[in-house]
Write a structure and sequence with these properties.
Helix content is 73%, strand content 0%. The chain is mostly helical.
Length: 200
């Protein structure tokens, strides 16, 4: 069973891409360039009920399972255990983001309580998958290529998060930069998960 759990990270990495695409097909005129991924589950959106069911809830479960596997399988190596904790945190926050939708208007000046919870949870998600690759980067336990790759992913995430903030301010294509920023984190998870499966 533990070996099966080791594949959860790979499955989650692929699932999120497919899940967002499927949900967007049920949202008329949805723009991947201009709209955030969370707008698929926002209050009043055509996919408010559908998006969390096919995205947040199964993704959260996969991430929690993968984090649990890392903690149990590598309990003698504290850095990997810490990464497992970060993956579980990411998974739990994925659930929270699905349960507490953002507001329909991403630019509202007075966000609802649900939107504030959603935003804070998203920020914790971002932080968790910055900390996790940095742990890899500074741990000699991992092979050098993976450590370098982890640094590249963190830098890519930071760069496109910066571009996201600018795009959001001038209302251009924040959706594109959000996907690229989070894409580096998901790419890291996918490659890291492959390395874990190779060790299993």
């Amino acid at each position: 069973m533990d070996v099966i759990f080791s594949y959860a990270g790979i499955i989650a990495s692929v699932w999120i891409v497919i899940g967002i695409y499927i949900a967007s097909r049920f949202y008329p005129n949805y723009s991947h360039l201009k709209q955030f991924c969370s707008e698929l589950g926002a209050f009043g959106s055509p996919t408010q009920k559908l998006s969390p069911v096919i995205n947040n809830y199964p993704l959260g479960a996969l991430l929690v399972v993968f984090g649990y596997y890392l903690i149990i399988a590598f309990q003698a190596h504290l850095p990997t255990v810490a990464i497992g904790v970060m993956v579980i945190v990411h998974g739990i926050c994925t659930w929270v983001c699905g349960f507490f939708p953002m507001d329909a208007d991403a630019y509202t000046q007075y966000p609802s309580k649900s939107c504030k919870i959603h935003s804070w949870s998203g920020l914790i998600m971002l932080a968790s998958f910055i900390i996790a690759p940095l742990i890899v980067a500074f741990s000699s336990y991992y092979p050098l290529p993976l450590r370098v790759f982890s640094v590249v992913c963190v830098l890519g995430c930071f760069y496109f998060s910066y571009r996201l903030a600018k795009a959001f301010k001038i209302k251009t294509v924040p959706g594109l930069h959000q996907r690229l920023s989070y894409g580096f984190q998901i790419l890291w998870l996918f490659v890291y998960s492959l390395c874990v499966v190779a060790k299993a």
